[in-house]
Specification:
It is a single chain. This protein is α/β, with parallel strands linked by helices. The chain is 37% helix and 16% strand. It is built from 23 helices and 18 strands. A six-stranded parallel β-sheet has the order 2-1-3-4-6-5, sandwiched between helices. Strands 9-8-7-10-11-12 form a six-stranded parallel β-sheet, sandwiched between helices. Strands 14-13-15-16-18-17 form a six-stranded parallel β-sheet, sandwiched between helices. Strand 1 (18-21), helix 2 and strand 2 form a beta-alpha-beta unit. Helix 3 (48-62) crosses helix 18. The radius of gyration is 24 Å and the shape is globular. The N and C termini lie far apart (68 Å). Bound molecules: thiamine diphosphate (TPP). The site of thiamine diphosphate has 20 residues, from helix 17, helix 19 and helix 21.
């Protein structure tokens, strides 16, 4: 077999069924091998960035490793934002890039770029393969590295002549895809945590994406239920606890609900599980949970005390750690504390006819159901979705939390649908973000991928505009997008059914009429450009001092 055939054989060996990618000169041999390889489904996107986001959305929604292919030079550099997006959110990806042939390396050859150098700081590891006999070992190791411990993207750069060189391939049956996470805590630390939990009167669990990644939302729920502890979530942690569960409080931090931020500020114990105390959660560090002792559970030792000091840290595998904690803690009843938290909540004033983000998202949620996988882009629409969608399961919310990548959503939604044919997949996007990635409508149309696209169009780069309104004296520098682009026609150009609405009544008519999940559907909701995201914690403030309205 040649190197290209060995590469594909190794992907199949790892259980890969779908790859996302885009061809080019250096990967012609790889695509040539793909031509005969019917065990792999290849989705050709419109742009390499879309391919990486699709592999990312596929991975986040299925728990499998996402795989994508790109050519050397510009193909490889187009993957960088997607790789960085996955890296920041700990998503396991394998990105295979073609490279100029080994004799041409280091000579500024056509489409030669040092992609291993460029991606060094945004990959868990990367490789430049210089010998055909290394391919199988490198691919096997790359899969193990990307999934082990804290997952992340791994890039493999393969020169064109190595794809063409004949080598030997010995098939392996892979049974152990990843290394076990080592438990690095002492029994005494666990017992200190148990004692703190038993003593606390006003505890809060702060759950993050690590719970989802480790597949331990059930174990977390059992722990929360036994200790009767309310759970707040980072954006990446949404979906860990079912929306309607009485202990689920929703998001905390910069755009968290007021009662959650006040609860964290007043709690006497904060139990962080797979969360990284990001600045988007913490804001002013010295006022974050100022009265609390803090227990931090994580798989990655580098997260401990990175942003916030902790009293006890437990490093290891949540699968064994959480049940152990649950077994050892006393059963508690925190009804007074839970009642206190609910008193901090201001009553919702709802006008069901108002054409605003909450009512729009509620209408979509009612129609598509809680089994929907929701991908977003970045901006106000993303935060409204995080606040209002009723997420019921891990992997139901696919969003760029760490890097905040506008242009992530459509590719991610494509990947999510390819990986979850039985679920509805909804993209919630904003007009600014959609302009960055709507070339992937070509992919939606080509493969007839039956996703639903909700464009919340406020004719603005809304999130930046909101900051200008609140913190830059309403000087709206370059954030109004009022050039009357006809998005329905744009969808129509790709043969995609599209609608544009301005009222709840019209939206409901369209929702009743469309056959979601059978074919792609695009719906634009034109909202007021002055609808803002609340609460918001102003820069430099404590999370309890969030603003809930601004004129
Ligand atoms: C690639 C990229 N460029 C710029 C930004 C900065 N940014 C964050 S939110 C935002 C506005 C997003 O506008 P839109 O997609 O229309 O969403 P809205 O906030 O209006 O819902 C911008 C420009 C970013 N996050 N990503």
């Amino acid at each position: 077999m040649n190197g290209a055939q060995i590469t594909l054989a190794c992907l199949i060996e790892q259980g890969v069924e779908t790859v996302f990618g885009y061809p080019g000169g250096s990967v012609i041999p790889l695509y040539d091998a793909l031509y005969d390889e019917h065990r792999l489904n290849h989705v050709r996107t419109a742009h390499e960035q879309g391919a990486v986001h699709a592999a990312d959305g596929y991975s986040r929604s299925t728990g499998k490793v996402g795989v994508c292919l790109a050519t050397s030079g510009p193909g490889a550099t187009n993957t960088v934002t997607g790789i960085a997006t996955a890296f920041m959110d700990s998503v396991p990806l394998i990105v295979i890039t073609g490279q100029v042939g080994v004799p041409l390396l280091g000579r500024d050859s056509f489409q030669e770029i040092d992609i291993t150098g460029i991606t060094l700081s945004v990959t868990k590891h990367n490789y430049l393969v210089r010998n055909v006999d290394q391919i199988a070992d490198v691919i096997r190791e790359a899969f193990r590295v990307s999934q082990s411990g804290r997952p992340g993207p791994v890039l493999i750069d393969i020169p064109k002549n190595i794809f063409l060189t004949e080598g030997y391939y010995v098939e392996k049956t892979i049974t152990n895809f990843k290394d076990e996470i080592q438990n690095k805590y002492e029994e005494a630390d666990l017992m200190s945590a148990v004692e703190m939990i038993n003593q606390s009167k006003n505890p809060v669990i702060y759950a993050g994406g690590g719970v989802k990644i480790s597949g331990t939302s059930r174990e977390l729920l059992e722990f929360a239920e036994k200790t009767d502890t309310p759970v707040v979530s980072s954006m990446m942690g949404l979906g860990n606890i079912p929306y309607d569960h009485e202990l689920n409080l929703g998001m905390v931090g910069m755009h968290g609900f007021r009662q959650n931020n006040v609860a964290v500020t007043n709690c006497d114990l904060l139990i962080a599980v797979g969360a990284r105390f990001s600045d988007r959660v913490v804001s002013k560090a010295e006022n974050f949970a100022p009265n609390a002792r803090i227990i931090h559970l994580d798989a990655d030792v580098t997260e401990i005390a990175k942003n916030i000091g902790v009293d006890v840290s437990l490093i290891g595998d949540f699968k064994t750690m959480l049940p152990k904690l649950t077994e050892k803690v006393e059963k508690k009843n925190n009804s007074e504390w839970k009642e206190q938290i609910s008193k901090w909540k201001k009553p919702d004033i709802m006008d069901k006819e108002l054409f605003d983000s909450k009512n729009i998202l509620d209408a979509f949620c009612d129609k598509l159901g809680r089994n929907t996988v929701v991908a977003t882009d970045v901006g106000q629409h993303q935060i409204w979705t995080a606040q209002h969608w009723k997420f019921d399961f891990p992997g139901s919310f696919i969003t760029s939390g760490g890097l905040g990548t506008m242009g992530f959503g459509l590719g991610a939604a494509i990947g999510a649908k390819v990986g979850n044919r039985e679920n509805q997949v909804l993209l919630v996007t904003g007009d600014g973000s959609y302009r960055m990635n709507n070339n992937e409508l070509a992919t939606v149309a080509r493969y007839d991928i039956p996703i639903t696209i909700l464009l919340i169009n406020n004719n603005a780069l809304g999130m930046v505009r909101q900051w200008q309104k609140m913190f830059s004296g309403k000087r709206y520098s370059e954030t109004d997008v009022d050039d009357k682009l006809d998005y329905v026609k744009l969808a129509g150009a790709y043969g995609i059914e599209g609608y544009s609405v301005k009222t709840m009544a019209d939206l409901k008519k369209i929702l009743d009429k469309c056959e979601f999940g059978r074919k792609p559907v695009f719906i634009e909701c034109k909202i007021n450009n002055d609808e803002n995201v609340y609460p918001i914690v102003p820069p430099g403030a404590s999370i309890a001092d969030c603003i809930e309205n601004f004129k």
